[in-house]
Amino acid sequence: MNSVKIDMVLPFSFTRRNLSEIVRKMSAIKSNVIMIKDGRSAQMKSILGLVSLCCNQGDEVEIICMSKDGSAESDLKSVLQILKESEL
Q1: Are the CB atoms for 35 and 46 separated by under 8 Å?
Q2: pLDDT tens sequence across 19-40
């Protein structure tokens, strides 16, 4: 199993609009992607999971991508791009 992680500060707060966009775009990611905030984790492909994290602008989060086929690093780049696009 291949996994990569990154710690980051969220540049925006989660809203209904950007969460639905994030989850919709995450469906194209093959890896298992988890976001961790304050010791709580959620699948990034689950809108309810992300809502439960109550993420706001400036929160420190950890994103972990896990893959069996070695695509975790490229998928993490895709996840970061999804988050960047959702910020607008």
Answers
A1: no
A2: 999 999 999 999 999 999 999 9
Distance CA 3, CA 67 (A): 6
Q: Tell me how far apart the alpha carbons of residues 46 and 55 are, in angstroms, rounded to a whole number.
A: 14
Q: In 10 A of CB 34, how many CB atoms?
A: 18
Q: What is the pLDDT of residues 42-65, one digit of tens each?
A: 999 999 999 999 999 999 999 999
The residue among 62, 61, 71, 63 whose CA lies nearest residue 29 is 71
Nearest-CA neighbor of 61 among 75, 47, 40?
A: 40
Read off the tokens for 29.
């990611």
User: In residues, how long is the chain?
Assistant: 88
pTM (predicted TM-score): 0.91
* Measured distance CA(86)–CA(69) in Å, rounded: 27
Name residue 41's beta-bridge partners: 36
